[in-house]
Design a protein that fits this description.
With about 150 residues, the protein is an alpha+beta fold. It folds into two domains: about 70 residues, no CATH class; about 80 residues, no CATH class. The protein contains three helices and ten strands; from the N terminus they run E-E-E-E-E-H-H-E-E-H-E-E-E. The strands form two sheets. A five-stranded antiparallel sheet has the order 1-2-3-4-5, with helices on one face. It has a five-stranded mixed sheet with strand order 6-7-8-9-10, covered by helices on one side. Helix 3 links the parallel strand 7 and strand 8.
């Protein structure tokens, strides 16, 4: 689950909770503990589902907040950094990533490389878990990083 808070400009004391329960699902927008609307990005544009009329600047503001988050770019950064090794990188939230390696790589060597360097790519201060699988999904390892430190 990913949880963000949006504070609209010029609206003192107003805060919207922006939640996504699973990667790929629409974002749910809450105000005062109640679900107000859902929104999702399709073909580069944010679309709103709900019964209320939502001001466009609020949609753009919340959409911009989501777009600015590191978890949106981080899977691609990881994949580009290890493009010779990785087939897929999937964000399962802002605290957990699933990585699948390419066929034919030296999986043990990649584990050593990954453990030695991943903390240099992490920018978020909270604990992040990386679950890494070989191409056949028969071997795996897990790495946990908090900020710039390897936890295990």
């Amino acid at each position: 689950m990913i949880e963000l808070d949006y504070f609209p400009d010029g609206a003192d004391g107003v805060v919207y909770q922006v939640l996504q329960f699973r990667a790929g699902e629409p974002w749910r927008i809450f105000y005062a503990g109640e679900l107000i609307w859902c929104m999702e990005k399709l073909d580069g544009l944010w679309y709103v589902k709900g019964k209320l009329s939502i001001p466009q600047e609020l949609i753009e503001g919340i959409g911009g907040l989501i777009d600015q988050q590191h978890f949106n770019r981080f899977p691609m950064e990881i994949k580009i950094h290890w493009e010779a090794y990785l087939q897929e990188v999937i964000a399962q939230g802002d605290r957990q990533y699933l990585l699948v390696c390419k066929t034919g790589i030296d999986f043990e060597r990649f584990e050593r490389l990954f453990r030695a360097y991943i903390m240099n790519l992490v920018r978020d201060p909270w604990e992040i878990c990386f679950r890494v699988y070989d191409a056949e999904m028969s071997e795996d390892f897990e790495v946990v990083v908090k900020g710039s430190e390897l936890v295990y």
